[in-house]
């Protein structure tokens, strides 16, 4: 008997069941096999719609649903209360009642600090009060900015900032905020602003690195030096302190004490230094004390 005859007389025993199953009640597709003779007079096995000899059972392919997009949430820190915006005027020496010298920063307030918008959970998804500061001419603002302010009948204001609160009860648009009503002498405040930009600086000035020897043949005075091993890891780690742009970033100084409030001059004296140079915009808010004026979570 020829080889082809032997192959045709033997019933192929191919039983393949997919290991992936979707459910116990899932139906399977049956694909039969048939004998097919090639030009070389050899018998091969191919799938066919007839001649059910030894069916191969295949489970259907199921597709998963695309992941649904998560809802967006407002991620911002809560304030201990509504604050004000002011202008840094400079620093001076202040003598308290006991004659002690206190270095203070003088902050003045121009026309403004008006409530321009009140946001609630129902309308915006969070509670916040928007404050406007420093009156300017109409042509200094864009049409969308003017339309936002004219909606509540407010004068043109250059700066707008929000104070996110737990509750916005008692605030309404076009409400003026007075310094004496929000702060008292002796209160602690958080002052934030933009620091003075100093351009590209080296590691000694930017990160307070120690310089090298200036004598005895030293050739490394203000250079940075080695920044990492050669073989392991063979690269420089991210966040390495190196020369770069210094200053010009937003910074917050926490828990500064209010020394003096002058209602006639519309200025406040705060102990210590605050970010920026004279004329810089500052944001003054009540100091946050976890567990006392803001929740722990």
From TrEMBL:
Name a single GO cellular component. ribosome
What are the recorded GO MF terms, alphabetically?
Answer: rRNA binding; structural constituent of ribosome
Q: Which domain of life is it from?
A: Eukaryota
InterPro entries from the xrefs? Ribosomal_uL3, Ribosomal_uL3_bac/org-type, Ribosomal_uL3_CS, Transl_B-barrel_sf
Would the keyword Ribosomal protein be found if you checked this record's keyword annotation? yes
Question: PROSITE patterns per the record?
Answer: RIBOSOMAL_L3 (PS00474)
- Any idea which UniProt keywords this protein has? Ribonucleoprotein, Ribosomal protein, RNA-binding, rRNA-binding
GO BP? translation
Q: Cite the residue spans of the region called Disordered.
A: 1-26, 220-248
Q: Does the keyword Zinc apply?
A: no
Task: Describe the family membership recorded for this protein in Swiss-Prot or TrEMBL.
Answer: Belongs to the universal ribosomal protein uL3 family.
**Protein name as annotated:** Large ribosomal subunit protein uL3c
